[in-house]
């Protein structure tokens, strides 16, 4: 039974397509839903947001939000992500930043975003050495060209 004010399930997207090697130095992109995209050149991987917990709207309005670590671990396993260079958050709303610190902790990635995103990371135990606060217009690089 679908709850009113619920969010769409990720079930139709499961299992995620397994990563493939990019051709001729290109990129492979895997869409995880909402604004979450895993980009990989075969050497370096970067994730935007990583939102997979998907709490329903009623829970968002009435409850305390927390990431579902098992859902993040499951996504990591399905995508065969061994290491991420960075998890970049568009902004610190729950539908972007809720799961990002868990991805960072599970994969050794830097958590990149606003001061608010860094605070969410701190609250979930991401070490200061793995937090990168960026300002509007800032450029960060990962991978072979860095």
Task: Write up what this structure looks like.
This protein is of the alpha/beta class and 146 residues long. It has a single domain, classed as Metallo-beta-lactamase, Chain A. The protein is 26% helix and 17% strand. The chain contains five helices and six strands. The chain has a six-stranded mixed beta sheet, covered by helices on one side. β1 and β2 form a beta hairpin. α2 crosses α4. It is globular, with a radius of gyration of 15 Å. The model has no long low-confidence stretch (mean pLDDT 84).
Task: Give the CATH superfamily.
Answer: Ribonuclease Z/Hydroxyacylglutathione hydrolase-like
* Backbone structural class: alpha/beta
Tally the helices: what do you get?
5
The description of the largest β-sheet is: 6 strands, mixed
Gross CATH architecture: 4-Layer Sandwich
- Gross morphology is globular
Order of helices and strands: EEEHHEHHEHE
Strand order of the largest sheet: 1-2-3-4-5-6
Residues in β-strands, percent? 15-25%
Oligomer: single chain
Query: In total, how many beta strands?
Result: 6
CATH topology: Metallo-beta-lactamase, Chain A
**End-to-end C-alpha gap:** 49 Å
Overall structural domain count: 1
């Amino acid at each position: 039974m679908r709850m009113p004010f619920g969010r769409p399930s990720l079930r139709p997207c499961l299992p995620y397509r397994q990563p493939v090697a990019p051709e001729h130095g290109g990129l492979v992109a895997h869409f995880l839903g909402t604004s979450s995209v895993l980009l990989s050149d075969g050497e370096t991987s970067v994730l935007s947001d990583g939102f997979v917990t998907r709490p329903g709207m009623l829970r968002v309005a009435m409850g305390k939000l927390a990431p579902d670590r098992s859902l993040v671990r499951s996504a990591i396993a399905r995508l065969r992500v061994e290491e991420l260079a960075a998890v970049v958050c568009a902004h610190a709303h729950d539908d972007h930043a809720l799961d990002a610190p868990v991805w960072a902790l599970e994969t050794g990635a830097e958590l990149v975003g606003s001061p608010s995103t860094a605070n969410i990371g701190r609250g979930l135990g991401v070490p200061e050495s793995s937090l990168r606060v960026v300002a509007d217009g800032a450029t960060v690089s990962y991978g072979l060209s860095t």
